[in-house]
Amino acid sequence: MSQLKDSQNPSGPVVIGKLKVTVDRNICIGASTCVAIASKTFELDTEAKAVILNSAGQDPEEIVLNAAKVCPVAAITIENEKGEKVYPK
Ligand code: SF4
Known about the structure:
With 89 residues, the chain is an alpha+beta fold. The chain has a single domain, classed as Alpha-Beta Plaits. 17% of the residues lie in helices and 24% in strands. It has helices at residues 33-37, 61-70; strands at residues 14-16, 19-23, 42-44, 50-52, 76-79, 85-87. Strands 1-2-5-6 form a four-stranded antiparallel sheet, with helices on one face. A two-stranded antiparallel sheet has the order 3-4. A hairpin with a 5-residue loop joins strand 5 (76-79) and strand 6 (85-87). The protein binds iron/sulfur cluster (SF4). Iron/sulfur cluster binds at residues 23, 28-34, 42, 50, 71, 73, 75-76.
């Protein structure tokens, strides 16, 4: 597996640029849509849950946001630097 952004919190919360990204592992069904959209940011771990990669900063913020939007179960939460929810609203 690729290097994680935060090995203590593989699915976040982690700060990527101006965004704080969290995957709810209880909700994630391993559909992998986020990985397809933002492959530098997300990867599935051995439990088929999305984790956040150290290379996350290489995907533009819009792409990360899009990945959250296409998650079929809305498992990805994104907050801005003020702690306001960007997605889901
Ligand atoms: S798209 Fe959603 S359900 Fe699928 S792997 Fe990513 S976080 Fe999990």
